[in-house]
Amino acid sequence: METAVRTGPGWADTLSEVSWGSVAAGAVVAAALSLALLALGAGLGLSSVSPWADSGVSATTFKTGAGIYLVLVAVMSSAVGGYLASRLRSKWTAIHGNETFFRDTALGLIAWAFATVLSAGILGAAATHVVGGAASGIAPAAAQGAASVDPSQVFVDRLFRADAAGAPTAGAAGNNREAARGEILRLWTSSFKENSDLAATDRTYVARVVAQQTGMSQADAEKRVNDVIVEAKAAADRARSAAAKLAFWMTAALFFGAFAASLAAVEGGQLRDGTWNDRRLVPRAW
Q: Would you say 27 and 111 are in contact if contact means Cβ atoms under 8 Å apart?
């Protein structure tokens, strides 16, 4: 049923309403479509990264492919949401074309913002579960184990890895071994958290403990400590780089989504204010 047309001198200048019902409808559809497309991306393997270095999708390919797909998801879902927000609004008459263009653009932008807040606040956990845990149904035990591994423990394990030729005796690797590992783990965690490195005195101490527990010479233990520290720094740099790339792709997806929603809202508004000529819809004239 068409909304009654209001007339009278100056009424159009005082009309400043937002069709919140259509905005909410477009936002909900955009959020739901985003979740569906994210699930499709997970099914296509965009989130399937092997924990092993020599198998599965490479980290670079995954980041680039997932980023591009994230932008496409934002554009498609936002365009649908913005189009529906303007197409379902009440019909505007006796308003200048420029004002109508601005209102439709703003309506699409509001619908995009509503969908973004809705996705972040309500659907965020579901989207994270779909994208990050898509492989949990295939190998739940492996996924749970990989998620619970502390990177610091991995590097400490590499420090205390005993060579077959220089393995310590049973007495040397007795009850003090776990105590030594716990001490080095605490030292490693606190030092890398603050400085991303070990102090010179700490390096010497860690090398001495490693030599005692593994049967290596002091020189070999110091070399192992230095090598593991270099690996830890490289891993930290890769993590920071990955976080920066993720932030870039998310920002790009938000901007492209906002533009797509506004542009689609203009198209939907033109058709909403258009007229039906027999069976053909004539868009609004500017």
A: yes
